[in-house]
């Protein structure tokens, strides 16, 4: 009998393994690299499956500010331009959720799980 933990990451759907993780302090200089990482993720995804889902985990972001909002907005643009790509935010800090709402981006990107307060 096995009493170990189940394989895989807790809270990550095994059928949508595409994940982009943002951690630490995000600056405007980081945004082009993040967009390139998302482009690489979606370019390697199989097209026959229909919509490609990418979960963007922002729970590790330190001091969410307008640079993070810009990153989310630009990542959303990259996803839309790629066609058939759904970008979902995971573990959204309350502060970032408030900023996204303030600038009108809260409805632009699906949030699948907010971080606890």
Helix vs. strand class:
alpha/beta
Main sheet summary: 4 strands, parallel
**How many H/I helices?**
3
Runs in which pLDDT lies below 50 for 5 or more consecutive residues are: 1-13
> Approximately how much helix is present in the residues?
25-40%
The topology string of helices and strands comes to: EHEHEHE
According to DSSP, the number of beta strands is 4
Strand order of the largest sheet: 1-2-3-4
Apparent shape: globular
Summarize the structure.
The protein is α/β, with parallel strands linked by helices and 117 residues long. It is 33% helix and 25% strand.
What keywords describe this structure?
117 residues, alpha/beta, four-stranded parallel β-sheet
Describe the structure.
This protein is an alpha/beta fold. It has three helices and four strands, in the order E-H-E-H-E-H-E. Helix 1 (31-43) runs parallel beside helix 2 (66-82).
What is the secondary structure topology, with strand pairs?
Layout lengths: L18 E6 L6 H13 L8 E10 L4 H17 L2 E8 L1 H9 L7 E5 L3
Parallel strand pairs: 1-2, 2-3, 3-4
Helix pairs in contact: 1-2
């Amino acid at each position: 009998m096995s009493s170990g933990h189940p394989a895989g990451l807790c809270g990550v759907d095994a059928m949508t393994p595409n994940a982009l993780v943002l951690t630490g302090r995000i600056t405007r200089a980081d945004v082009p690299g993040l967009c390139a990482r998302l482009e690489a993720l979606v370019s390697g995804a199989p097209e026959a499956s229909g919509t490609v889902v990418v979960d963007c985990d922002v729970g590790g972001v330190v001091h969410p500010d307008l640079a993070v909002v810009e990153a989310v907005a630009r990542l959303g643009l990259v996803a839309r331009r790629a066609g058939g790509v759904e970008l979902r935010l995971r573990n959204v800090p309350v502060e970032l959720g408030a900023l996204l709402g303030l600038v009108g981006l809260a409805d632009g990107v699906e949030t699948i799980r907010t971080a606890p307060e």
